[in-house]
Amino acid sequence: MTTINNAHQQAVGQVSVPPRLLLGPGPSNADPRVLQTMGMPTLSHLDPAFVPLMNDVQELLRYTWQTDNEYTIAVSGTGTAAMEAAVANLVEPGDVILVGVIGYFGERLVEMAVRYGADVRIIEKPWGDVFTLDELEAGLKAHNPAVLMLVHAETSTGALQPLAGVGDLCHAHNCLLLADSVTSLGAAPLFVDEWGIDAAYSCSQKGLSCPPGASPLTFSDRAMAKVNGRTHKVNSFYLDITLLAKYWLGAARGYHHTMSSNMIYALREGLRLVAEEGLEARWQRHQTNAELFWDGLAGIDLTCHVPDAANRIPSLTTVAVPDGVDAGAVAKRLLREYNIEVAGGFSKLAGKVWRVGLMGYNSRPENVVLLLQALERILHE
User: E strand or H helix at 121, and its extent?
Assistant: First the structure.
C-alpha cells in the first residue's frame, strides 16, 4: 500500500479577517444584504428554482445598463473574464480593431485583442485625459476599424470618458462600439442603448456592492450579428457567447458549465438594491459623495489628478501625491492604523497618485469624513 504523505496536513484555525474599510479601486465592501443572501443554500446550476433567479439578474442588469439587449448575462469570473468574453467574441483574426488608450485598462484591451489575432491600431491620450468626439472620429476615418474599444471609467487614472455620441460616430463608419464599464456600472450615468454601445462588460465587486465572481456582459443585436457571421469559431469555449446564451436564454436551458448559484444570489441582491434605490438617486449619491471628497481634499491641500471635475469618475478618485511624500508609506499607515485600504498608482502613475474608491455600499459621507481625517493626520505628522 502506498504511504500517505502527511507533510502538508496542517492544523489551521478558523478563518479570521480584519474589518477592512475597502476604499481602494475594488473590491469594495459588499452590502450586508448581499453577504446574507450569499449564505442561502446552494442550488444546482439547472435547478428549476434557480433559473428564475438567472432571469431576474438579466432583467435587473437591463435596467442598470439601460438596455433592452436580449443578450445580457453574467459571466462566471471576475471583470477580466467578462472583458475577455467581449474581446474573444467580437474579434476575428485579421480584424482591424481601434483601441483608445487613456490608461492601463486600455492597454489591457490592446493586449487581449492582439492575442485574438486582431490588427490592432491605437490612439492615445495622456493618462488622466479623455478623447473628444473629433479625435475619435479622426481615428475612425484613419483606421476604418471593425470595432472601437474604449474604457468608460479608466480605473488607473480616475478619468471618465464621455460616450454620448460615440456610438453614432461608430455606426456611421460601420463600426461597433465596445465599452469597459467595470468601474462605472451602478455608479455613474450609463445609457447603453441611447449611446449606441454595442457591447459592454463590468464586474460585481465595485458599484454593485457584491464580492467578485459574477461579471455582467451585454451584446446588442449588431454585436450578435458580427458574432453569428464569424468565419472562425470563438477561441474560448468557456466564453463563447453563443454557447453561454443556450444556458442563459430561452425556456430550455442547456448545460454549459457549473455556475455558482451563490454568486448569482449575490449579484441579484446587489442589482435589487440598485433598483430599490433607483438609478437617478444612486448616480446622484455617488456624485454628491465624490464632490464632498474633492472639496475635502482641497481643504487639506490635496488635489485630484484629473483636473476637470466633469471628467472624473464619481466612484474612483485619483489623488495627486504631494512632492516629497512616500505614497506607499501613507497607504500602509492607513491600513495599519485605521483599517482603511486605498491603492497607489501603477505603471505611468506609480508613486504619483492614490486611488480612492467610493463605490456602491461604500459611497457614504461618513467614509469620506473618516478618510479625510486620517489622511490629514498622517500627512501632518
Answer: strand 119-124
Ramachandran sector of residue 216 (left: φ over 0; alpha: ψ -120 to 50; beta: rest): beta
Task: Give per-residue pLDDT as tens, 241-298.
Answer: 999 999 999 888 999 999 999 999 999 999 999 999 999 999 999 999 999 999 999 9
- The whole-number pLDDT of residue 251 equals 85
In 189-320, the DSSP E strands lie at: 199-201, 214-219, 316-320
Confidence at residue 241, expressed as pLDDT on a 0 to 100 scale: 98
CA-based angle 311:335:266, to the nearest 5? 70
CATH number of 21-27+278-380: 3.90.1150.10
Query: CATH top-level class for 32-275?
Result: alpha beta
- Can you list the residues of the chain whose pLDDT is less than 50? none
Helices of type H across 79-156? 79-90, 104-115, 133-143
**Residue 367 and residue 141: Cα distance in Å, rounded?**
46
Residue 191 CA to residue 68 CA, distance in Å, equals: 11
For CATH 3.90.1150.10, the residue range(s) in the chain are 21-27+278-380
Calculate Rg over the CA atoms of the chain: 21
The C-alpha cell at 106 is: 486600455
Q: At what angle do helices 327-338 and 365-380 cross, to 10 degrees?
A: 120
Q: Distance between CA atoms of 84 and 82, rounded to whole angstroms?
A: 5
**What is the DSSP secondary structure assignment for residue 186, as one 8-state letter?**
T
